[in-house]
Here is the input.
Amino acid sequence: MTTWAPDVLGDDYQQLTIPLGTDPDGEGTVEATLVRYRPPQGPDPERLGRAVLYVHGFTDYFFQEHLAQHFHEQGYAFFALDLRKCGRSLRPGQTPHFVTDLTEYDQELDRSLEIVREQVGGGGVLAVAHSTGGLIVPLWADRLRARTAGAADAGLTGLVLNSPWFDLQGPSYLRSVGTLAVDAIGRVRDRLTVNLGISDAYGRSLHREARGEWDYNLEWKPLTGFPVTFGWLRAVRAGHARLHRGLDVGVPSLILRSKESHFSRKTTDKSDAADLVLDVTQIARWAGCLGDRTTIVPIEGARHDVFLSTEVPRKQAFAEVDQWLDWLNGRLG
Here is the structure.
């Protein structure tokens, strides 16, 4: 039995709480939140027969209404998942986004896939994921393929990864000696905060109260980001290592990224036309590790979240998605 309730985004959105039981990391009871876009003037989701399941990144949650509207216009029922301890799913006393193993997310991803498929009459689901979500989802798809008759048989039809976090940015020693240190510290002091310094450059480039055009909850997505813990980063580095050994996600993937990175703690005009968070060369380097057919498209002038870019690159990103979907749907018949 699923009971949908009103969502913070307004009348066209509803949310469903997914109970997940006791937190393996000792922070009480955990839940995830599935959001659906269901405008009254649109068709019933079951009549659409296909859906999108969107998964956010770190210091993030679903608020991108234009993303839901675009996929709906392309004939997809739209759903988004706020993972445990993120956005709508964060509960008092919990550490935002904190997990010590990325496989923990399989529980809400599996359940969300089931619910979404029920909503669209057993139709296929396209997974769309951003940044850390772009690491979490391929790892899940690889495990889903391995423990079922295949990702496609489980209902997954493809992946659209928006600036996926495929490796650690920064100097090479952070990916070697630095990772060994993260592993050692993360084992014994998992909630200790990694000293990364504080920058609001990316947040200011996005939020309407600063210099951006987007409005979102700053308690769920603060301008400076949430603190990074050693336990969480250790889990991410384990995920990176698994990706680098090669996955088989079992379905085609489209990867969108900015054409360049620009690391700066100050907000400038360049902040609006480059990835301020990840090293795009690392995305390009490891894209071939997903398995199956992979298409990677650099977007000139895109931000870290290409769908939150300024108008011209944002339109290009959507055009690339639509073109790829035409190919995918032709392949699926």
